[in-house]
Each structure stands twice: as C-alpha cells, then as structure tokens.
Amino acid sequence: MGRRRGGLMSDRLKYELAEELGVADLVRREGWGSVSSRNCGNLVRLAIERAERAMMQGQ
C-alpha cells in the first residue's frame, strides 16, 4: 500500500498550532523532527478541537 503524499493539515495550520503551543521557534530552527512526541500529540489535539468547533459553527 502506498503512502499519502499530502498531509491532512496545511503547513499554515501546523505553524499556527505550533505558535499556539510555543514550539514554532524550535520548528523554524531545527525542523518538525525536533518536536517532542508529547507536543506533536498536543498539535493533533488542537487541530481536532479546531475542526470540531468549525463543524459546530457550520451547523
């Protein structure tokens, strides 16, 4: 089975979430690989929360 080429989140959204978590400077300096697993999980949690809020506002 092939891997997905594109991600589900835009780069813009990922950087917005990184700013919110306070890890954007680390990402700019060292790349996404330097972000801890915990913070990656927090990025996903924030993205899910935003998506849920957007769905609720759209209804």
Write a brief caption for the model.
With 59 residues, the chain is an all-alpha fold. The chain has helices at 11-21, 24-30, 37-58.
Average pLDDT score? 89
Order of helices and strands: HHH
Q: What is the gyration radius calculated from CA atoms?
A: 13 Å
* Strand-pairing-aware structural class: mainly alpha
The helix content, as a percent range, equals 55-70%
Number of helices: 3
Task: Tally the beta strands.
Answer: 0
Proportion of beta-strand residues: under 5%
Distance between the termini: 36 Å
**What's the number of domains?**
1
Low-confidence stretches: none
Instruction: Please give the largest β-sheet.
Output: none
What is the overall silhouette? elongated
Protein name: Small, acid-soluble spore protein, alpha/beta type
Family: Belongs to the alpha/beta-type SASP family.
GO molecular function, one term: double-stranded DNA binding
Keywords: DNA-binding
